[in-house]
Amino acid sequence: MKSEFQWNKSKKKLAFDKTGGKEGRLFYANEAKRMMDPYVPANNLVLAQNTRVYVEGEHGVVEYLSPYAHYQYEGELYVSSKTGSAWAKEGEYKVPAGRKLNHSKFRHPLATDHWDKAMMTARKGELTKAMQEYLKRGKR
Predict the structure, then answer these.
(1) For the segment 46-55, what is each residue's pLDDT rounded down to a tens digit?
(2) Hey, is 46 helix, strand or coil?
(3) Strands (DSSP E) found in 42-123
(4) Do 54 and 33 contact (CB within 8 A), yes or no?
(5) 16 phi, psi to nearest 5 deg
(6) CA 44 remoteness from chain centre
(7) pTM attached to this predicted model
(8) Residue 24 CB: number of other CB atoms within 10 A?
(9) Do the beta carbons of residue 28 and residue 16 sit within 8 Å?
(10) Average pLDDT score, the chain
(11) 132: helix, strand or coil
(12) pLDDT tens digits for 81-135?
């Protein structure tokens, strides 16, 4: 007797579903955001709190919405291309000045640039375990 078995879904789709699908990606992104928080510069907490977490395609996304988020993330002083001042008029663009930012450690003692990488270095195992527990619970 000969039998044939055919999947209705691609391997990529099966793997996506097995790891929680869209809900799993959203859970993972929210956990990553929570674990990144101590590493985000937080002089007045606006950057750390002005975020959006969502799923785009097959990826969870943590987006920092403050207009200066990119500069803080890069950890480098950016200045006006015309005047060299840290303050740029509307319509001017900023360029890297070659000087590192000094992040305040008052509210978040672990604050640094590239906070996602710092969190993953320190807490990757914890994030992985949280995702495993989420999948064991059956997405609850």
Answers:
(1) 999 999 999 9
(2) helix
(3) 51-56, 59-64, 76-80, 94-100
(4) no
(5) -60, -45
(6) 19
(7) 0.83
(8) 19
(9) no
(10) 91
(11) helix
(12) 999 898 888 888 889 999 999 998 899 999 999 999 999 999 999 999 999 999 9
**Are residues 75 and 103 in contact, defined by beta-carbon separation less than 8 angstroms?**
yes
Residue 70 and residue 83 in contact, taking contact as beta carbons nearer than 8 Å:
no
* CA nearest to 112, candidates 30, 31, 34, 42: 42
Of 104, 119, 120, the closest CA to residue 45 belongs to 104
Tokens 């500069």 sit at which residue?
71
Residue 137: burial class (beta carbons within 10 Å; 0-12, 13-18, 19+): exposed
Query: 24, 94 in Cβ contact below 8 A?
Result: no
Quote the Cα angle for 131-136-140, to 5°.
80
